[in-house]
Write a structure and sequence with these properties.
The protein has helices at 3-36, 41-50, 58-72, 78-93, 98-110, 112-130. By secondary structure, the protein is an all-alpha fold.
C-alpha cells in the first residue's frame, strides 16, 4: 500500500468508523441502563472511562484517534498514514486486539444495527487488503 492509497482509505473509512463507534456506545449504554437504570450522558462517559467492563472499546477509539491524527498532522509521514490504515484492518481482523474482536463479534450477533454498519465497513476493508 502506498501513501496515496492509505490516505484515500482513511478518508473513506473515517465516517463509517465513527458511525459504528456511536452505534456500539448506544448499544452498550442501553444495556447498562437496563441493568443499572437511567444515567446522564456525563455519568455514562465516566463509566466508559473508568469502568473495566468497557475497556474492550478502547482499541476502536484509539484507531479512530490515530486515523484522525495521521490525516490532520502536517508532519505525518508515509509510514504514519500507512500504519494507521493497517491498524484499522488489523482491528477488524482480530490481529490488533483479541478482546475487542471477541466482544465485537458477539455484538454483531446481538445488534442488527452494528451488523448492518459492519456490512458497510467490510467492502472498505477488503478494498485496502486487496490493493
Amino acid at each position: 500500500m502506498n501513501e496515496q492509497r492509505a490516505i484515500q482509505f482513511l478518508n473513506d473509512v473515517r465516517k463509517p468508523l465513527l458511525t459504528l463507534h456511536k452505534a456500539i456506545l448506544d448499544h452498550e449504554r442501553a444495556d447498562y441502563q437496563r441493568e443499572f437504570g437511567p444515567v446522564t450522558p456525563a455519568a455514562f462517559l465516566q463509566v466508559l472511562i473508568n469502568g473495566s467492563g468497557f475497556r474492550w472499546i478502547s482499541p476502536l477509539s484509539a484507531v479512530i484517534t490515530n486515523l484522525d491524527e495521521s490525516l490532520d498532522a502536517k508532519d505525518a509521514t508515509d509510514e504514519d498514514r500507512i500504519g494507521a490504515a493497517q491498524a484499522v484492518c488489523a482491528l477488524f481482523s482480530g490481529e490488533e486486539s483479541v478482546e475487542f474482536f471477541t466482544h465485537y463479534q458477539a455484538l454483531m450477533q446481538a445488534s442488527p444495527e452494528v451488523l448492518q454498519l459492519h456490512g458497510r465497513l467490510v467492502p472498505l476493508l477488503r478494498s485496502v487488503q486487496d490493493a
